[in-house]
């Protein structure tokens, strides 16, 4: 589905990412870890289309990825990205409106009724049907993230990009969100890329784990080399093995320290 060929990203003379080669199949759930500042969000932005590669290519079904965001790709950020002045229901209806008439956000009466119905159904799926008329400031952090996920899914994306979506949530709420995301991933047959700082979460949710790290270092010029994919693990194969005690896990922890916690 996605092919990434020799991808590089620089800002000025800072090389952030280099030599990334990989392929992703439809339905993969890729979790991404790495030290703070190694370029995980930059990678997601290139997948979204708000940043362009400095070198190399991202191909979607053999075609270069559209250079700007489109309905194929939805994103949820750590900081709640919902409209504060709109109710829960209107936040989701407007996502639908923008997908259909991006320049005006305007919908005719029939479409508006259909959009409202679809929005209510989506909000039901994410467990917000009791809060349709509330405003974002009246929601908990977990509820806001449920709303952001509902918004992203209204556009029926094939690819869902999650940038530390649960970073600000309490552990109990995070567990609920994990089940929600896994359910939606299966039901909508999504391909998911998720950045996290929690290695346990990365192993639990992902079918593949990517570890970003620099393989080359120049102490005189720290920006000279960028991070690459140092591990691309098939987690299904590894899950259930004695990975927890393995040297591999220790190495991943070392590469992602100090920002990645292995909770529990
Ligand atoms: N628009 C930009 N202009 C210049 N430098 C940038 C820009 N965006 C990101 N960077 C730099 O690129 C590097 C990678 O940033 P990025 O946000 O992708 O890292 P990250 O791995 O997601 O970090 P964190 O885990 O802390 O969120 C950082 O050094 C950052 O300062």
Automatic annotation (TrEMBL):
GO terms for molecular function: acyltransferase activity. InterPro entries: AAA+_ATPase (IPR003593), ABC_SmlMolc_Importer (IPR050093), ABC_transporter-like_ATP-bd (IPR003439), ABC_transporter-like_CS (IPR017871), P-loop_NTPase (IPR027417). Coiled coil: none annotated. Keywords: Acyltransferase, ATP-binding, Nucleotide-binding, Transferase, Transport. Gene3D superfamilies: P-loop containing nucleotide triphosphate hydrolases. SUPFAM superfamilies: P-loop containing nucleoside triphosphate hydrolases. It holds the Pfam family ABC_tran. Residues 2-239 form the ABC transporter domain. This is Lauroyl acyltransferase. It comes from Pokkaliibacter plantistimulans.
């Amino acid at each position: 589905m996605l092919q990434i060929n020799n991808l590089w990203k620089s800002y000025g003379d800072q090389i952030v990412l280099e030599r990334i080669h990989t392929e992703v199949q439809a339905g993969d759930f890729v979790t991404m870890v790495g030290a703070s500042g190694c370029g995980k969000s930059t990678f997601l932005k290139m997948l979204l289309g708000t940043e362009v590669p400095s070198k190399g290519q991202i191909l979607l079904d053999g075609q270069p990825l559209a250079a700007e965001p489109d309905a194929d790709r939805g994103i949820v950020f750590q900081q709640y990205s919902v409209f504060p002045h709109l109710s829960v229901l209107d936040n989701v209806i407007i996502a639908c409106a923008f997908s259909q008439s991006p320049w005006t956000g305007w919908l005719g009466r029939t479409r508006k009724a259909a959009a409202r119905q679809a929005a209510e159904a989506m909000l039901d799926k994410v467990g917000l049907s009791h809060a349709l008329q509330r405003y974002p400031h009246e929601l908990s952090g977990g509820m806001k993230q449920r709303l952001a996920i509902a918004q992203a899914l209204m556009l029926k994306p094939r690819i869902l990009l999650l940038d530390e979506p649960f970073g600000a949530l309490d552990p109990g709420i995070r567990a609920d969100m994990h089940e929600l995301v896994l359910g939606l991933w299966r039901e909508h047959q999504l391909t998911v890329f998720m950045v996290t700082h929690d290695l346990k979460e990365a192993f639990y949710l992902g079918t593949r784990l990517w570890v970003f790290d620099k393989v080359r270092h120049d102490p005189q010029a720290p920006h000279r080399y960028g991070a690459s994919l140092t591990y691309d693990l098939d987690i299904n194969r590894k899950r259930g093995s004695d990975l927890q005690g393995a040297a591999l896990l220790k190495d991943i922890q070392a590469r992602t320290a100090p920002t990645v916690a292995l909770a529990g």
